[in-house]
Amino acid sequence: MYDVTIIGAGVVGSAVARELSRYQLNLCVLEKDEDVCSGTSKANSGIVHSGVDAKPGTLKAALNLSGSRMMEALALELDIPYRKNGSLIVCTNKEALPQLEALLERGRNNGVEGLKIISREEVISMEPNIADGVVAAIFAPTGGIICPFELTLGLAENAAINGAEFEFNSRVTNIQKENDYFIITTDKGAIKSRMVVNAAGVYADEVHNMVSHEKVKLQARRGNYFLLDKSAGSHTNKTIFQLPDKMGKGVLVTPTVHGNLMIGPTAVDIDDKEGTNTSREELDYIVGRSTLGIKDIPLRQVITSFAGLRAHEAGDDFIIQEAKDVKGLIDTIGIDSPGLTAAPAIGVMVTKMICDVLKPAEKTDFIPGRKGITRLFELSFEKRKELIDNDATYGNIICRCETVSEGEIREAIHRPLGAKSLDGIKRRTRAGMGRCQSGFCAPRVMEILKRELGMSMLDITKCGGDSKLVFNYNKDNL
Amino acid sequence: MKTYDLVIVGGGPAGLAAAVSARENGISNILMIERDKELGGILNQCIHNGFGLHTFKEELTGPEYAERYVDMIRELKIEFLLNTMVLDISEEKVITLVGKESGLLRICAKSIILAMGCRERPRGALNIPGFRPAGIFSAGTAQRLVNMEGYMPGREVVILGSGDIGLIMARRMTLEGAKVKVVAELMPYSGGLKRNIVQCLDDFSIPLKLNHTVIDIEGKERLEGVTLAKVGEDGRPIKGTEEYISCDTLLLSVGLIPENELSQEMGVEINTVTGGPLVNESLETNIKGVFACGNVLHVHDLVDFVSQEAAAAGKSAARYLKDDTEQSDKAGAIRMIPGSGVRYTVPNVIYPKNMEEKLTVRFRVDNIYKGCYVSVYANGEKISRRKRAIMLPGEMEEIILKREDIQSLTVPLELVIKVEEG
Predict the structure, then answer these.
(1) Is A435 at the interface with chain B, CB within 8 A?
(2) What is the pLDDT of residue A412?
(3) How confident is the model at residue A452 (pLDDT cuts 50, 70, 90)?
(4) d(Cα B333, Cα B119) in Å, to the nearest integer?
(5) Is the Cβ pair A395, B144 closer than 8 Å?
(6) CA-based nearest distance A203→chain B, Å
(7) What is the reported pLDDT for A247?
(8) How far apart are CA B223 and CA B218, in angstroms?
(9) pLDDT given for residue B353 in this prediction
(10) Residue-level pLDDT at B275
């Protein structure tokens, strides 16, 4: 019998698991995919929102602000790359200046620090590539950028270090409430748990509806993005949002914490909850809209495009509460933007709700920190040299675009919740994330996975399931 | 810090031929740096034949061609490092490198030959919409998996792009029992050599669809199929021409990009058309004593020409090391201008005093030309005209300039190479 079972190992589930792991609780995290960070958490803007535009009085507004305030210390504690680069919300139309003023007021009411409206001249001094049509902007100094993979991994790994059990490839198919516990059935079997946290992302409605009579419905909302080469990464310094207008919300242009440039997302409602495909229309839309905020975006430097789904709920606010008719089921439903920013605060909020019921004792041996994977090429020459002299695998460069060594890939495989697939390696080390998009390193990473995990090459996947990379040995088809 | 007269970055066909040539021209203190576990570069995975017809007057496979040069390197006792990657080159020619055996170290070079080759354009650069399942490989990655690792990455294959590696892989996958359903090419002509179209597609009845591209990719885990469409003259898909083709593998052969990240970081100026450095008649970049050759300079079709070009770079580096005053004589520069029908030229500038007796100028045309002339104009005046039966964008062209012709011109400032109708 587990005390708490968390369904979903995205950023919310992982944040909840990590907070709960401070207490003497038996924790289980069930994840339908082969790795943490496999759904909404892996494909989003990677923005730590300042909280300017959240509707006052909503959970989104409150949790955005507290999440944003927690992020810097958390990133330090969990060794996650994070940069408070500040954001600009640009206004491209003089007639829209009253809306910009109103947004500033809203942001101030939300409690966001340091907000001010700046003139076109001040914008240009911050961002030389600002579009010609920009007349003014809100400057939000607390806006930031973070790596969504590493945030999720950091939280999940730390939870695992502190005793949370993670079960992968475990899709929940049924939840049954007994008197004072749940029976949760997955495609691997059934477990019992006193409480359940529903952190199932776009599937949170289905998980809720398995056991509650008060049905909810989520809308999968797709966003397409472009990722540009690092050579384009300094095209902007801050995250550039557009003031929403009658043409829509606009798209953002941002550097990523690893030095790429990213533009997107779109917002298209779709029925398929696995529909993470990009579309010509959406990609064209991004190209058209992005230029309103930033000019001369070097689109020839695009290295990949991708899509993510966000879990949109009609009320447009997070639903974080105990299900009204199911005691012990804590829902986190409709966690779309600013979900990544809010996740640490959601973790704290849900933990408090659980502690109020289970009243667990705090652990005395909780380990708050986590050491990230060595990032060889962020070290000084002397440090790198020392590391390589001690372990030659750090001198064997596998991914040449991102300069990732064999040593780092081995770390990614052998650490808690280690990587099992090409994408798992990519998200942990950035091998394959660069301009050649794994053309060079894929066979070499496969070879390392094979050796380190004792797998057959034929079983190595891109991202679990049936995503196999090679089918057979030569001559087998003849 | 250890100092070398010449450091060659890359031990593929360009690096090998450059090293041999530099040694034959009297340079003893050479280091060649290769990141893979053996010398030869991409030749090692090119197990088909057709290499060496110009250089050795016989048909060799890629590994055999490489071996000829590796044998020369060993005979000439040229020092090289394997499993070693160059991380950084400073403008002062201090090179930072790292390797499993060599560790992390810095060395100093009096001259450098850039011979890093090129990489394949990935799917992302094309912005093909759709899912991102397993089963999408660049043709060269698939070639490595099949030819060097011994694994088959697919059974039912569509190939996008008709570059030479894609054509070669169409045949290779077929020979290993896969079904190659179609090769789609966006342009109205193939990007590969005519002989490869014949020997790799026609001989195996694999259809080549020109003016076609992939507009959608299906399959959430492993690739399930692609949608092809015909494209109009603007390169955009034409509505109503969509055709779904089920397949588990999509190979991309959609262009090669010279790997000039190192060069750019050290301040080498790049030609935006080729993606390679701007060079003079000695294949020297804007940085004195830094030369470039092979696919890092501009993408070649035939390794034989890579070897020729690299030998010229090796000779230039040797001359630079012996007497760099000559090289610094930059008087009377002639700018090479690609005229109508010509996409680019290598070199981009000629200093007549430094010319060898004959200078090979390599270029590519921008379309298919039949029965046309390649003309050279010096300051607007036609100085030569050569008839060509056919010229193709997929096949590199060359003309030879003679030193006596160039030096006799009165202060020419510009040489324009253009294609003219018959």
Answers:
(1) yes
(2) 98
(3) very high
(4) 33
(5) no
(6) 17
(7) 65
(8) 6
(9) 86
(10) 96
B-chain residue closest to A377, CA distance: B87
Residue B328 has pLDDT above 60, yes or no: no
**Tokens read off for A271:** 């029925």
Please say whether the beta carbons of B359 and B281 come within 8 A. Answer: yes
Q: What angle in degrees, to the nearest 10, is found between the helix axes of B13-24 and B303-322?
A: 40
The stretch A409-429 carries a mean pLDDT of 98
pLDDT per residue as tens digits for the range A428-448:
999 999 999 999 999 999 999
Classify A444 as helix, strand or coil.
helix
Known catalytic residue at A213: no
- The CATH label, of 3.40.50.880, 3.20.20.140, 3.30.9.10, 3.40.190.10, for the domain at A83-144+219-312 is 3.30.9.10
Does residue B372 carry a pLDDT above 60?
Answer: yes
Number of neighbouring beta carbons within 10 Å of residue A110: 22
Q: Is B238 on the interface with A (CB under 8 A)?
A: no
Q: Is the pLDDT of residue A305 over 60?
A: yes
- Measured in angstroms, the CA of B204 and the nearest CA of chain A are apart by 16
Q: Chain B residues with CB inside 8 Å of A477's CB?
A: 152, 155, 176-178
How far A89 CA lies from chain B's nearest CA (Å)?
A: 28
Task: Provide the pLDDT for residue B297.
Answer: 98
**Residue spans per domain, chain A:** 2-41+149-218+316-358, 83-144+219-312, 376-459
Task: Report which of A168, A177, A156 is spatially closest to residue A344, judged by C-alpha positions.
Answer: A156
Distance between A43 CA and the closest CA of chain B, angstroms = 12
A2-41+149-218+316-358 — its CATH code?
3.50.50.60
Phi-psi region of B200 (alpha: psi -120 to 50; beta: other; left: phi over 0): alpha
- The answer to whether B152 contacts A470, with C-beta atoms less than 8 Å apart, is yes
Nearest CB among A302, A389, A462 relative to B125 is that of A302
* Among B96, B134, B144, beta carbon nearest to A469: B134
Residues 6+ away with beta carbon under 8 Å from A448: A398, A406, A409, A410, A413
**What pLDDT was estimated at residue B127?**
87
Question: pLDDT (tens digit, 9 = 90+) per residue, A344-387?
Answer: 999 999 999 999 999 999 999 999 999 999 999 889 999 999 99
| Domain spanning A376-459, CATH architecture | Orthogonal Bundle (1.10)
Q: Cβ contact (<8 Å) for A397 and B124?
A: no
Say whether pLDDT at B48 is over 60: yes
> Tens of pLDDT along B155-171?
999 999 999 999 999 99
Of B96, B94, B78, B77, which Cα lies nearest the Cα of B86?
Answer: B96
Is A121 within 8 Å of chain B by CB? no
Facing residue for A473 by CB, picked from B99, B151, B222: B151
Q: Is some CB atom of chain B closer than 8 A to the CB atom of A465?
A: yes
Q: Do B145 and A478 touch (CB under 8 A)?
A: no
Tokens encoding A139: 């400057």
